Amino acid sequence: MKKWGKVSLTLLVAIILVIASACGNKTNNNNSANSEASNNAAAEASTSPEASGNSELDALKGKKVALVMQFNTGTFSSQYVEGVKEQVEKFGGSVQVFASDNDLAKMSSNLDAAVNQGFDGILIDHGQAGALEQGIKKAQAKGIKVVVFDADVKIDGVPVLQQDNKSMAELTLEQLAKDAGGKGNIVKVWVAGFAPMERRQLAYKDFQAKYPDIKEIAAFGNANNPAMDTQAQMEAILKQYPNKGDITAVWAAWDEFAKGAARAIQQAGRTEIKVYGIDMSDEDLQMIQDKNSPWVASAAVDPKDIGRVQVRTLYKEFKGEPNDPILVLNAVYVSRDALPAEQVSTTQLSQYVDGWGSSTQNYEDWMKELEGSK
């Protein structure tokens, strides 16, 4: 009995060890299989479109954009900046503004700073080719995308936006001629050295040839502190020509010029003189709607739209999509006669002026998705 008991006990222990070993192997195999399955599932999830999103659009998020401006004077410029910031932020990026106080040397330095600080893209507002081209080429060498507005820059791979400056000048000058009956004495407020001004001057020369009985009796313009300087100079001209009928109208090639001229004329009580301007902002619109103001009309592109379109053009560059070398922004004519008695803002202007605001130029379908996923 004792001998058999020992054998039985030994066999029992051995059987238990074999069973335990088999169970352990099965558990380990199951754990290993489960772990591998989990790893595979995670890998599949990370590469699936649902998990990863649109990698092309993801690459466009978080872009840092520099806006290098020749000047940021007046409400037109401030609304343009609002348009830039609004569109960049909708795309999930950020903007830093470099204002140059109408100093081309400072503008060139600001452009170099933007290049050296490693922005993803640079927007340029006005300026001259001589001050900009070297910096733009440095940006290109570093892979930084550049889009220019209203500067006479001609560099391969750099899109240039410009207002339809010739059309804007023609719209205002033709209305001036019509209102004046094709004859009279006018004052021109204009300044050289700016690409849009130079284009507007070409239309003005054509106007002079077309209407020889409309005589220019004075011409001036200063881009530094333009509204105040224009007001002071216009006051002096009004003293030089003190009689009603001496001056028929003022043609101002920039809204800041129109503001100054209109204020001088209104304060002098010479509201028989009409002012025709170019560009439009909320402040300009208030003046045009004022029935006591001599400023009766302006031709313009919505400044916020200019900023938005310039940003969209930049993001097409980021994505590697083609852009036209020159993109012309369509202008409209805004006259007091077309506006309601109650005060309106530029955001409401589309209700009264066909073609104003809400431009879809360079707005691609994928941009809607980018705006919705930031």
Task: Characterize the overall form.
Answer: elongated
The level-1 CATH class of the largest domain: Alpha Beta
Query: Can you count the beta strands?
Result: 12
CATH architecture of the largest domain: 3-Layer(aba) Sandwich
Order of H and E elements: HHHEHEHEHEEHEHEHEHEHEHEEH
Q: What is the structural class?
A: alpha/beta
In whole angstroms, how far apart are the ends? 84 Å
Give the count of helical stretches: 13
Summarize the model shown.
The protein is α/β, with parallel strands linked by helices. It is built from 13 helices and twelve strands. The protein has two domains: 139 residues, 3-Layer(aba) Sandwich (Rossmann fold); 136 residues, Rossmann fold, CATH 3.40.50.2300.
